[in-house]
Amino acid sequence: MPRRLLAAAAPAQGADRVHDAIYDAVVDHRLPPGARLREEELAETFAVSRTLVRQALHRLAQDGVVQLRPNRGAQVPAPTREEGAHVFDARRVVECEVVRRLAGRLEVAQLAALRRLVDAEERATAAGDHREAIRLSGAFHLELARCSGNPLFVRMLEELLPSTSLLIALYKAPGAPMCVAHGHRALLARLAGESAASAATEMRRHLNEIERSLDAPAARATPALRDVFAPYREPR
Question: For the whole model, what pTM was predicted?
Answer without folding.
Answer: 0.79
